[in-house]
Write a structure and sequence with these properties.
single chain; two-stranded antiparallel sheet; DNA-binding; B3 domain-containing protein At4g01580; transcription regulation
């Protein structure tokens, strides 16, 4: 049997379509344009294809993480076949000054965690300034973002492990100073 280019193209096309429908497909990224309804409804819909391929892996609460490392837990809302970022979404949007016309790129990491890159209306990635978020003291690895007001009380608060780390750094500095003083004494004696 002679295989022609058309036969190869049809076979490739069929196998490509089958791999796209595979529920184990590695679709990990999607983007969303922030529409007026997103801001008005205070929730954002996850694209249907992503839901079809990855929706069963998502727990009731997901974590959004920005490139600056800020994390926010968002409760999902399931309506029929649709899944929406819901409770916590409007606070995340407000904390990052997300507005109509912004473009968001979501990358699913695992364990219901998404990395979110935010592009503003100029089509450039937004800055993620520290003073645009409100960090709540927490003993776990999740830093909660709650709004634009960043008061000095929370600025000065540290998690217990950060306080412990500061103590260790202080002890290392003290030991270094003592070591340098001892070396200076040896040089003067010697």
């Amino acid at each position: 049997m002679v295989i022609t280019r058309n036969m190869k193209a049809r076979a490739t096309s069929v196998s490509h379509r089958q791999s796209q429908q595979d529920p184990e497909s590695p679709v990990k990224k999607f983007f969303k344009l922030v529409l007026p309804s997103t801001m008005k409804d205070k929730m954002m819909r996850i694209p249907p294809r992503f839901v079809k391929l990855q929706g069963s892996k998502l727990s009731e609460v997901v974590t959004l993480v920005t490139p600056a490392g800020y994390k926010r837990s968002i409760k999902l809302k399931r309506i029929g076949e649709e899944i929406w970022f819901h409770e916590g979404w409007s606070e995340f949007a407000e904390a990052h000054s997300i507005e109509e016309g912004h473009f968001l790129l979501f990358e699913y990491k695992k364990n219901s965690s998404f990395r979110v890159i935010i592009f503003n209306a100029s089509a450039c990635e937004t800055n993620y300034p520290l003073d645009a978020v409100h960090i709540i003291d927490s003993d776990d690895d999740v830093i909660e973002i709650t709004g634009k007001e960043f008061d000095t009380e929370h600025k000065s608060k540290k998690r217990p492990r950060d306080i412990e780390f500061d103590k260790i750094l202080h002890d290392v500095d003290v030991m270094q100073v003592l070591k340098e003083e001892e070396e200076d004494k040896r040089v003067l004696r010697g």
